[in-house]
Design a protein that fits this description.
176 residues, mainly alpha, Glycerol uptake facilitator protein, 0% strand
Length: 176
């Protein structure tokens, strides 16, 4: 696959991932009637399911990183050439913005707004470190013994990490 095609797959996959995260967050809030736990449950289910489908779809093309931490880690392990990393990172960031804009457009929101939910406390920074480390551990652990399970293991981990991290587990610098 050409670098352009792989980068396009990363951008599209990241866009759909963000569309799932943001869109399900908006829908969850609207339907939950103020019940934050129900909104989080809806958001975590949709956000957890999306990576499985997206990894299965785009994995054969780009490796389905959708995450700059995964891209950088893959490059350190020689799974991705360092010369390809800038294209992957740019594609992921552009895809993230496109996914957010698409979700906002679908729900009649302003395309881009500043978040009203501050996530700057040390506890949340630590939670993101734990979430990202856990995600990378799941991916690399599965790749060693059961590579076909990666999409489903990632989905299960992301769904659960929504509930066991104080940050709701972005686990993705492009999302953050």
């Amino acid at each position: 696959m050409t670098l352009l095609r792989r980068a396009a797959a990363e951008a599209l996959g990241t866009a759909f991932l963000l569309l799932a995260v943001v869109g399900s967050g908006i829908m969850g809030e609207r339907l939950a009637g103020g019940n934050v736990a129900i909104a989080l449950l809806a958001n975590s289910i949709a956000t957890g399911c999306a990576p499985a489908a997206l990894i299965l779809t785009f994995g054969p093309i780009s490796g389905a990183h959708f995450n700059s931490a995964i891209t950088l880690a893959d490059a350190t392990q020689r799974g991705l050439r360092w010369s390809d990393v800038p294209a992957y990172l740019a594609a992921q960031v552009l895809g993230a913005f496109a996914g957010v804009a698409a979700a906002h457009l679908m729900f009649g929101e302003a395309l881009f707004t500043a978040s009203t939910h501050a996530r700057s406390e040390l506890a949340q920074v630590f939670a993101e470190f734990v979430a990202t480390f856990g995600l990378m551990s799941v991916i690399w652990g599965c790749l060693r013994s059961r590579s076909a399970a990666v999409p489903f293991a990632v989905a299960a981990y992301i769904t659960s990490a929504y509930w066991f991290t104080s940050s709701t587990s972005f686990a993705n610098p492009a999302v953050t």
